[in-house]
What does this fold into?
Amino acid sequence: MIPQEAQYREWMLASLQGDASCYRKLLAELTRHLRGYYARRLGLDGAEDAVQETLIAIHTRRGTYDPSRPFTAWVYGIARYKLIDVYRRERRGQTVPLDAAGALFAADQVEEAGVKRDVTKLLARLPEAKRRLVQAVKLDGESIADTAARTGLSEVSVKVAVHRAVKAMGETLRDGNADG
Amino acid sequence: MRTDDLIERLSGALEPAPKGQVVRVLGLGMGAGALLSALLMTATIGIRADLIEAMGGSAFWLKFVYTLVVAGLALAIVDRLARPDGTAGRFALLLAVPILVMAVLAAREFLPADATIQHALIMGHSARVCSILIATLALPLFAGLFWSLRRLAPTRLTEAGAAAGLLAGSAAATIYAFHCTESTPTFILLWYSAGILATALLGAALGRMLLRWS
It folds into this structure.
């Protein structure tokens, strides 16, 4: 049993009754798990889109949740389906193992902490301006257009700057001196 | 859009979810399909002329018990597979029960009979068309159930397609039983099952392609 099951299920049942504040809490928590789940499998680039698609699917298909069954398994079913969908669209012939819902929820705290630490380290090596752009676009999920409008840069320069920064981070990782 | 904004938007517009959505959507697709299928049958091959008399005999009801039990189990499986975490589970195993019961009944009449009678038991008088008519009558139900599933959240698409085909086939066989004048367990076990199986296979083949939702 996933440790968060009871809490999430309670929020879900309240949400199905129309309780918006429970729903907001629930979606925020799920977003955290989903981000970790997709980032590990799709990379930071594809993760945020997949997270948003999954949130929308959870919303539009919430009537298919059967309260007599575990809520975490229901969410995991959708998350895994969306992952397969992304692989299919990108024509990556990848198979997705049929894990237990723990793949989405349990190992996550440890791993997510690890991922966060690595990303923070890598980010720290970037120049201040670039770091802000990467933070906004890749981690906070802000759109290119919004970031451009906020910073006064053109969309193209935002895109190029972020792309280069992510590439540089990737190279740092590959050279194996993320810890340096 | 930022993910935080998306969450705000989704929770801001939250309304209580209608209860029993899966049952309602499945009922709608299946009801419309069954209606069309019944209309199609009465308009073409028609209901058997001796329906009222036949209803007096127990042989008449055997077909309905068989197809309705299979349809009931198939409905339970579809209801589960329409949800993201659903598996066919024990209901798939339970399908063996009606089939075994029919097999025992068929064996009891078939095995002791001599060759001419065995041939007659197998062929009845409509063996050539029975399965094809059942599979054809299943098409409206099939379409209705696929329509339903696309509005729900199946994630095992091949299995969900097969289960929907099984349900469409067994429901169509129930409708067809109002036309068909055969009543021996041997005939029903062979040709009814073949028609139902064909629709289930069609569902399995099309599930991955047609049941994808986003």
